[in-house]
Specification:
Layout: H1 2-14, E1 18-19, H2 21-29, E2 34-38, H3 42-47, E3 54-55, H4 61-68, E4 75-79, H5 84-94, E5 102-105, H6 108-114, H7 135-148, E6 153-154, H8 156-163, E7 170-174, H9 178-183, E8 190-191, H10 194-199, H11 201-204, E9 211-215, H12 221-233, E10 237-241, E11 267-268, H13 270-278, E12 282-286, H14 290-295, E13 302-303, E14 321-325, H15 330-339, E15 345-348, H16 351-357, H17 387-398, H18 401-406
Parallel strand pairs: 1-5, 2-3, 2-4, 4-5, 6-10, 7-8, 7-9, 9-10, 11-15, 12-13, 12-14, 14-15
Helix pairs in contact: 1-5, 6-17, 7-12
Length: 417
Amino acid sequence: MLAKVFGGVVERAYRTPRITAEDLQTEIANGRDVAIFDARTFEEFQAGSLPGAISCPLAELPARVPDAAPSPDTLIIVNCASRTRGILGAQSLLNLSLPNPIAVLENGVMAWSLAGGALVERAGRVAAPPAQRTLSARRDTARQLAARFAIPLIGCRVLEKFKGDDYRSLYLFDVRTPEAYAAGHRKDARSASGGQLIMTFPQFVGTHLARVVLTDGGDGLTAVTTALWLAQIARRQILLLIDDEQDEVATGPERVQASGLTSGVAKLSAAQASASLARNEATVLDLDSSLAYRAGHIPKARFAIRSRLPIGLDAIEADRTLILTSSDGVLAELAAQDLASQRPVLALAGGTAAWSAAGLPLEAGTGNPLHPFEDLWPSPMRAPGSRLEGFRRYLAWQTSVADQARQEDTLAFDLRV
């Protein structure tokens, strides 16, 4: 919510150029040289994008777009589903003083759809990583942006001092894409792609007055792009790690550790769970998000919300074993730990991912939920019902939040125009 308010404030304060969906359709029909960059995650991009658009997540735009634009005369358009990432993405490119005309697609994919534009599903165009030959120039640009937006730069020695400070929390994030993180990263850095960190900062940082250090393991341009917006929106101490040279790096995705999880949780394999279900001995509770559940769950599994349990369990026969699952099984183990003293309960080892990896089927749909689908507010891009009507309502709300923010005396951003 905070980021969405911030996007509207930025558009007004920075006077970010914008183009309507109708005008963009006209430019394309007239043969204008246009390059469209979608600032959402690749998964969101594949769910529905503008024809010819290129996937380039928000924080990656300054590093990748200069090489991806066909010529200095190309009209560069940045979009997201609605507003925020498109605005911040376009403004991030404007901060580079490129020769190209640059604009945000006003109201994004939603406005394009409302204007009758078609969407492409499962598009695969991705902006290529920047060339090695431009590394020095990108590093210079990153330092210039850090100076302009007052982002402090630190080296590895200062980072080590921060680690020894027992009186202040420290967060170290690698803000590249999850794929780049998995290819090689600092052992002590968490994965938090820049655009998502900007949009959902409170989900990553829960400590007041914490130090937040960002790195991208390379030129610093992705990290400083993330930092300059976080410094303005979150009003925290955001620092940029430079000279990030390490002899030893880790590979693979971020390892998730669940606080409070013991080793005493009873588990069973996907094959054992399948056999138990075939004998009609057990009921599966799926604790993943309602969106994931609707997309695909173990046949006859019932959707449940961990925080609601044990509410609702009286509807399941007491002699039936409960098999709990979640995407990777971690949340299921935590819930099984909660319920172990109340009735027979097992966690599916590896969760629904292990079930799928074993070649076992999934089914989509609403199924037979144990709890209502109240775990999250669905984006209009994914909500059931009339999408276009949902788009209209959502855009009416989002375009009004900047005005509402003016009346909120507890809300303040550190704008650095």
